[in-house]
Write a structure and sequence with these properties.
single chain, 124 residues, alpha+beta, six-stranded antiparallel beta sheet, globular
Length: 124
């Protein structure tokens, strides 16, 4: 019985050793979290040479507006969560989230993105 218990417990112990998800820390790179080929979360770069977390958040907001789906991204070690309700940032998936833009600021970002989308659609 003891041997069976140890065999059943081994996979649980190994799962506990799995490294927690961390945001990439590359300076100036804006990332999007996607499903990797191995079924695990994977960060993919969406823009280099980004100077602030707010600019990365605005790019992610544009992606959310086009896709209609919540987006999780990252910038210099911080997670950025973009949802219909708000855009927040946190140091990790389980950490306290803080708002990136006030509602008025976010509305201005959305207006700017919509202008760019409309120009692109018009071919200009």
């Amino acid at each position: 019985m003891r041997r069976i218990f140890l065999v059943l417990l081994a996979p649980l112990a190994l799962a506990g050793c799995e490294k927690p998800l961390t945001a990439p820390t590359n300076p100036g790179v804006c990332w999007r979290l996607a499903q990797g080929m191995n079924g695990k979360p994977d960060f993919r770069p969406i823009a280099p040479d980004i100077d602030t977390l707010e600019n990365c958040a605005a790019r992610l907001e544009g992606m959310r507006m086009v896709s209609g789906q919540p987006i999780t991204g990252a910038f210099q070690g911080r997670f950025i969560y973009v949802a219909d309700e708000d855009i927040t940032v946190a140091s990790g998936p389980k950490a306290q989230r803080y708002r990136v833009f006030t509602p008025a600021q976010r509305l201005e970002v959305q207006k700017g993105i919509q202008t760019l989308l409309d120009r692109e659609k018009a071919g200009g």
